[in-house]
Amino acid sequence: MVAIRQPSHVVSLISPAADLDLDLASGQSEHLFLRFNDINHLQDGLIAPDEIHIRAYLDFLDSWEGSRPLLIHCWAGVSRSPAAAYIAAIARNGASCERDIAMNLRAKAPYATPNRRMIEIADGLLQRQGAMIAAIDAIGRGSDTAWGSSFSLSDR
Length: 156
Description:
Elements: H1 2-5, E1 9-14, E2 30-35, H2 51-62, E3 70-73, H3 80-93, H4 98-108, H5 116-125, H6 131-139
Parallel strand pairs: 1-2, 1-3
Helix pairs in contact: 3-4, 3-5, 4-6, 5-6
């Protein structure tokens, strides 16, 4: 996807112990690594997404001017990366778009089950008063799958 989309910014959402070998075309992309487990609640021995992770992600999004794509990936493409894509779309589109973007996410990625903890934290940081959470709850759990596939929430 890096070779095909040629993103200016890449976000890797991976588990703390995961080994990632990603060729970013000789450093032509800015790259943010966020390492946490794909969990929605605190669990002993695992690292849950927290406010520090989501703040770092939002700050990284602020550095993306949008002329080239933003590429977001996780291990299976079902929970963390769809949550991050949703958060990016919300951050870029302003208030009152939460439900429309969630419905677009469901249409483009029927298997997506965005990480609820990431959504809850972003909802607070972006001051959406629960609108992001309600929109994700409205689309419900995605269809069963072992692996997601690539999708774009933009029309590009």
